[in-house]
Design goal:
6-stranded mixed sheet, about 475 residues, 2 domains
Length: about 475
């Protein structure tokens, strides 16, 4: 049996901004921009951390007769509880011609039911001093509340009610569509970097629906209506397509009766398959390039994305090796890219590399650089290609490998210090094909990575034929242009 692991990008994202994963923020919630301790704040602990395995108590889990999976993560340090319900449907599950429907429907989930009119859920959370949020990604949609412990039963009743009890009328569906279109205008149409990212992704995924934007294509968003929303709701929102995660000051023995009471009578949706099947990518045959020019660009950007396996599709050991490779290449000021491009050659202002392993289907390994004024993209690209070639031919230095593995393991340990982080980590992992044990064993998988595995990952996966290279440039003309080759 192949062991699957949680991607470092998931751990790092939860560590840095534990609830900054959402596409939107509801009025009751403000993003927390506070920074968390980094490895460099506690240098005396580096050697100790390399010896630590995940020590937190294993979450309790059970499944109701209707298929609802439940995970309970006790954390008794404060009388607070986090409830997150994760639906195994995301933007990649939108029907052809209906892109953006998953995210649009996330908005509609706040429109009220027969029992609880529009706004009551949000007002209840606010009244008890809680926070709420919602997330739509390519693979899942999630709804979250963090409230005092004694309010959990109320939150569970409200969440269960809207799983199937939502009332959707033309007036509130169409008005919310206008809200989503305005969100598109602000976050995509008027954001050159976001449009750049969308174009690279569309060029990377020739056949898989990951090539569609999370918010959808505007011309398709404009046509979404009540019938589309209702069909989506009936198809995907059901207990056998959901995972309920409760983290905080709770007793797992008390949670099951509460879940049974609120969710137990909701019928399963038999049409939902046990496993999602999506169109897959053909074997990449040629490198691609994307150039986006826009007069609003303040700083040119070079970016490259490679098609690589995710933690759910990789062979044993490949996913953690890609995590370590990304950290060696672009994880901070001691990374190889930073040393070469920023310090030694002084070609770039910044560099980075990341691997998004927590994905249901094949994912991306991304490299980026911001050139210094006067430096041409060809110089940046040549220097990066040489770093990749060196990593593909020569094993990483032992001290560098030890350093980055310690950093990644430390991130996983720090992530255990916040119940919201833990709920996010388990939710993302479980909705993308991992098990509780896969998630818990991620630090051990990182610790086991060898220099030779990292070299093979660079050699096998960082092949230009598997890539899209993007150039974001400033255009002096008033009209934007997008080119692909």
């Amino acid at each position: 049996m192949t062991t699957k692991v949680l991607g470092a990008a998931t751990v790092a994202m939860a560590l840095t901004t534990p609830t900054a994963l959402a596409v939107e923020y509801k009025v009751e919630y403000k993003k927390d921009n506070s920074s968390n301790p980094s490895l460099w704040d506690v240098p005396e602990k580096r050697n100790v951390l390399t010896q630590i395995t995940v020590t937190s108590e294993r979450p309790a889990s059970f499944t109701l007769a209707n298929g609802l999976q439940v995970v309970v993560i006790p954390d008794h340090r404060t009388p607070i509880v986090t409830q997150m319900i994760w639906y195994k449907v995301g933007s990649a599950d939108d029907a052809p011609g209906k892109s953006g429907l998953a995210h649009f429907f996330e908005h509609l989930m706040f429109k009220g039911t027969a029992k609880h009119p529009p706004g009551e859920f949000s007002r209840t959370v606010l009244r008890v001093g809680g926070k709420q949020n919602a997330i739509t990604s390519m693979d899942y949609t999630s709804y979250f509340q963090r409230v005092p412990r004694e309010q959990l039963a109320r939150m569970m009743e409200l969440e269960a009610d809207r799983m199937t009890g939502l009332i959707l009328k033309d007036e509130n569906v169409l008005s919310e569509r206008d809200v989503v279109l305005e969100e598109f205008n602000k976050s995509v149409a008027n954001n050159p970097d976001r449009r750049f990212t969308e174009q690279i992704r569309a060029a990377l995924y020739l056949n898989h629906p990951y090539g569609r934007p999370n918010l959808g294509w505007r011309q398709e968003l404009e046509k979404l209506d009540r019938e589309d929303a209702l069909a989506f709701y009936k198809r995907f929102y059901a207990p056998n397509n959901a995972i309920l995660i409760i983290a905080g000051d709770v007793d797992p023995k008390e949670i099951r009766p509460m879940v049974e009471k609120n969710f137990g009578d909701i019928p399963a949706q038999p049409a939902i398959p046990a496993k999602r099947v999506r169109p897959q990518e053909p074997t990449p045959a040629a490198p691609r390039t994307v150039t986006l020019s826009d007069p609003r660009v303040e700083q040119p950007t070079w970016r490259r994305s490679y098609l690589v396996p995710s933690s759910s599709t990789a062979a044993a050991g490949e996913s953690p090796a890609l995590d370590v490779l990304a950290q060696v290449m672009g994880g901070g000021t001691n990374s190889y890219l930073y040393r070469v491009l920023v310090i030694d050659k002084q070609l770039a202002i910044s560099t980075g590399a990341s691997y998004h392993g927590t994905s249901l289907d094949p994912s991306q390994f991304m490299i980026s650089a911001t050139p210094k004024p006067g430096v041409h993209f060809v110089e940046i690209e040549d220097a990066i290609d040489k770093v990749i070639a060196d990593l593909a031919q020569n094993p990483a230095r032992a001290e560098d490998l030890e350093r980055v593995k310690t950093q990644l393991i430390a991130q996983a340990i720090y992530a255990q210090d916040d119940q919201v982080m833990l709920a996010v980590l388990y939710g993302r992992g479980l909705t993308t094909g991992l098990s509780v044990d896969d998630i818990r064993s991620w630090p051990d998988s990182i610790r086991a990575v060898t220099a030779e595995q990292v070299r093979k990952a660079a050699q096998g996966w960082l092949d230009k034929k598997r890539s899209v290279t993007g150039y974001l440039i400033k255009e002096s003309a008033p009209k934007c242009e997008e080119k692909r080759s």
